[in-house]
């Protein structure tokens, strides 16, 4: 910094050419110290100044006026050494003379600097300035060092005085007027000046020709002040200790240069506002436009307005939105209608992605340099989409294949296990949401593996068991015989089936029993089922003895253990085999007496009678249990030559001819009437096409293998045993049981009678026939009672054709068709 210069308001030189100096002050006592001088605390800019304290006039020592001290400008806080001074000060006095008494205080007539804030920063005088008499200390001693601290408290420049003016609060202690030391006294200054002494504050400015801030720092001068000004010390507390720390005004103090920050900040704000306005206006201008070169699923929307872009997008994607989607899951594939999947294009939301007001920079950038591809926004019906994917899960799933083990030509073979696949629903839904209209497909849906029930590991384990089974024969020890089952017999009786997630060998007991019996001699005895036999003309229960057999389950368990073990011998025992029909069960059926009987006359044809006798043998002893339905063809069949039947006369398609089992229609008629009067329920029957005098009209039946049968149901709680025999030229059929029903029957007169006419035929197959009964219609009635309750009330009407005589005229005449027959 340059040396300070005085303002033009400094006092003029006196008659001797020197500046007026204050008169020497009375010297203090030898024990005077700096601490005896009252201290006026500084008033900072942000504090309310304390009320000044002015002591009584008598208590203030008078001293010659001293030279005014220059006002110091605040220095930037920085650490200072104890030996350095804070600032150079000067004290100029006004004119003095006889009009100003020496024992009165000098009035404070400082002229403040208008460029410095009115802040009083008093300086604490040094001991050398406070004493008027010679001091033991040299006059050039350094000022009191500042207290140590990180930074020196800043000293603000401003008007100063020896005594602070009263303000408010407690009175401040009086400040003594500093006296000029010999080192700072100005020669030629006398106390006999006629002008009063006035304290003036000299404002010192830097020598550099540039404006300075009110808070420009002043570099502290080292050593004593050349003008003898008191040293500037930091404020002290009541005990005289220096108060450390920086002033709170330190951050407000600049570096002494005029600050350009406010102006730069102002211009920065103006530019920011202008740029923000231009940016917002540009965004608003482009709000309704789609950026150029913007495409949605291949549809160009660049430069279009919001409404036009929506219309363009709907038209451009209309066809694709209706096309079925090609979807795949592994090797399976199918198609899916987007509408069925709940997928539709939301054109409004799609266009809104690139239009509308927004402050996003990328939106404006797109308008300036061009847009980009934008994904379409879809409207998704979640319920439909979930249902459609569920259908795909079922439709595109591949079934896992279980591993299998079997035997081929006695050798164990296996088929490998294969995993299946199944669509994972949630990821599949996400694929459809994100790829439809964006990709052309097909859409490969994610799948997960579905393990088979029988894995490859289980298959390999089962194959090892199968190879063990057929590795050698198994010997079966039963009774006194020891049949040997070879590998092929074992392989035929063993299968591997899934059981609890594994392939377990299953041995077929029935097959093993057959294999053992085939390799033994008379090992088993069959049981004799109880049945009815007629002895002395009455039904008797016979048979019912048990036999011997092999328990299939026990044999399978024993052979299986031997085949899978090291000892390949299976020991089994014969067990008793009970008959399917026991004597006790049959005796409890209540077959005690004849409840119904019917008979018909025989013809003179011996072969026909022989067929009836064979039929009677097979029918006798036939048991009809309660609730069972009886079938005559089952009881008599099979109607073959091997079963004892012969060829006899039958009616085939209305023509009398011959057939195996001829005459059995008489057995049908006789049996039908026996069941009819027993009260049994009629299930199936059909009369002949022509009437025979040996049968009751309208109450008879015929049978023909493959088309006609006689059936009735035992609707009583008792068993019924059939009996048939031939005696006295008649065929008898009886029903043995316990009486249960009472039956009443009647018949109507014949009606619609049609007389016979002679039929002339020719051909080698023509058989002459003398003729029979005329045609007619008749109705039969039946009422069945159980006690007094009528349980059946029915009628049956039948119309017969006339049984015309046949005359063979020429041998070339063709015989009739034989599509159906009656015997």
TrEMBL record:
Residues 499-567 form the YoaR-like putative peptidoglycan binding domain. Residues 68-84, 99-154, 177-187, 222-235 have a biased composition (Low complexity). It holds the Pfam family PG_binding_4. Residues 1-41, 54-244 are annotated as: Disordered. This is Vancomycin resistance protein YoaR. It comes from Xylanimonas ulmi. The lineage of its organism: Bacteria, Bacillati, Actinomycetota, Actinomycetes, Micrococcales.
């Amino acid at each position: 910094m340059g040396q300070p210069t005085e303002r033009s308001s400094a006092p003029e030189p006196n008659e001797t050419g020197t500046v007026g100096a204050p008169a020497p002050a009375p010297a203090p006592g030898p024990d005077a110290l700096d601490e005896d001088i009252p201290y006026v605390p500084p008033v900072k800019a942000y504090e309310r100044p304390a009320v000044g304290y002015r002591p009584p006039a008598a208590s203030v020592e008078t001293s010659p006026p001293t030279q005014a001290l220059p006002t110091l400008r605040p220095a930037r806080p920085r650490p200072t050494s104890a030996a350095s001074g804070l600032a150079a000060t000067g004290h100029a006095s006004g004119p003095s003379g006889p009009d100003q008494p020496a024992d009165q205080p000098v009035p404070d007539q400082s002229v403040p600097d208008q460029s410095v804030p009115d802040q009083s920063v008093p300086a604490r005088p040094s001991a050398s300035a406070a004493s008027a008499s010679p001091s033991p200390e040299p006059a050039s001693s350094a000022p009191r060092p500042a207290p140590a601290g990180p930074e020196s408290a800043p000293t603000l420049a401003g008007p100063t005085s020896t005594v602070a003016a009263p303000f408010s609060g407690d009175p401040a202690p009086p400040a003594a007027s500093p006296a000029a030391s010999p080192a700072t006294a100005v020669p030629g200054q006398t106390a006999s000046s006629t002008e009063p002494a006035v304290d003036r504050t000299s404002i010192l400015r830097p020598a550099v020709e540039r404006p300075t801030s009110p808070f420009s720092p002043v570099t502290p001068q080292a050593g004593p002040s050349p003008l003898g000004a008191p040293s500037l010390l930091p404020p002290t507390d009541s005990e005289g200790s220096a108060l450390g720390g920086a002033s709170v005004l330190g951050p407000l103090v600049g570096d002494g240069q005029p600050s350009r920050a406010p102006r730069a900040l102002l211009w920065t704000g103006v530019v920011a506002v202008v740029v923000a306005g231009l940016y917002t206006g540009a965004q608003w201008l482009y709000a309704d436009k789609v950026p150029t070169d913007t495409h949605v699923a291949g549809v160009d929307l660049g430069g279009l307005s919001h409404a036009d872009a929506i219309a363009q997008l709907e038209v451009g994607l209309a066809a694709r939105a209706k096309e079925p989607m090609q979807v795949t899951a592994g090797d399976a594939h199918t198609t899916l209608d987007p509408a069925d999947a709940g997928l539709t294009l939301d054109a409004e939301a799609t266009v809104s992605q690139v239009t509308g007001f927004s402050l996003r920079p990328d939106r404006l950038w797109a308008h300036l340099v061009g847009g980009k591809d934008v994904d379409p926004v879809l409207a998704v019906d979640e319920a439909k989409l979930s249902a459609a994917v569920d259908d795909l899960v079922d439709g595109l799933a591949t079934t896992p294949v279980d591993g299998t083990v079997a035997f081929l030509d006695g050798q164990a073979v296996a088929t490998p296990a294969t995993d299946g696949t199944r669509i994972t629903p949630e990821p599949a839904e996400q694929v459809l949401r994100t790829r439809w209209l964006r990709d052309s497909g097909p859409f490969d849906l994610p799948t997960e593996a579905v393990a088979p029930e029988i894995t490859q590991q289980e298959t390999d384990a089962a194959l090892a068991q199968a190879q063990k089974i057929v590795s050698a024969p198994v010997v079966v020890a039963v009774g006194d015989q020891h049949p040997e089952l070879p590998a092929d017999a074992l392989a035929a009786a063993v299968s591997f089936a899934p059981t609890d997630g594994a392939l377990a060998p299953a041995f077929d007991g029935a097959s093993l029993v057959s294999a053992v019996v085939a390799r033994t001699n008379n090992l088993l005895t069959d049981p004799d089922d109880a049945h009815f036999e007629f002895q002395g003309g009455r039904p008797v229960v016979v048979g019912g003895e048990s036999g011997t057999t092999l328990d299939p389950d026990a044999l399978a368990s024993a052979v299986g253990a031997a085949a899978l073990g090291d000892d390949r011998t299976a020991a089994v025992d014969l067990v008793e085999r009970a008959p399917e029909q026991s004597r006790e069960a049959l005796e409890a059926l209540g077959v005690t007496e004849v409840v119904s009987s019917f008979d018909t006359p025989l013809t003179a044809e011996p072969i026909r009678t022989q067929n009836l006798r064979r039929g009677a043998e097979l029918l006798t002893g036939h048991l009809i249990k309660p609730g069972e339905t009886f079938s005559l063809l089952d009881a008599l069949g099979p109607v073959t030559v091997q079963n004892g039947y012969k060829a006899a006369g039958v009616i085939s398609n209305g023509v009398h001819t011959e057939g195996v089992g001829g005459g059995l229609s008489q057995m049908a008629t006789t049996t039908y009437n026996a069941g009819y009067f027993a009260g049994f329920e009629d299930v199936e029957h059909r009369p002949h096409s022509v009437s025979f005098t040996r049968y009751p009209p309208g109450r008879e039946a015929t049978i023909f293998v493959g088309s006609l049968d006689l059936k009735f149901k035992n609707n009583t709680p008792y068993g019924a045993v059939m009996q048939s025999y031939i005696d006295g030229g008649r065929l008898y059929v009886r029903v043995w049981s316990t009486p249960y029903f009472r039956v009443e029957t009647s018949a109507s007169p014949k009606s619609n009678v049609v007389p016979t006419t002679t039929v002339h035929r020719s051909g080698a197959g023509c058989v002459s026939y003398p003729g029979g009964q005329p045609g007619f219609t008749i109705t039969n009635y039946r009422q069945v009672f159980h006690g007094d309750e009528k349980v059946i009330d029915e009628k049956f009407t039948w119309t017969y054709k006339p049984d015309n005589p046949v005359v063979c005229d020429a041998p070339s005449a063709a015989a009739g068709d034989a599509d159906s027959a009656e015997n």
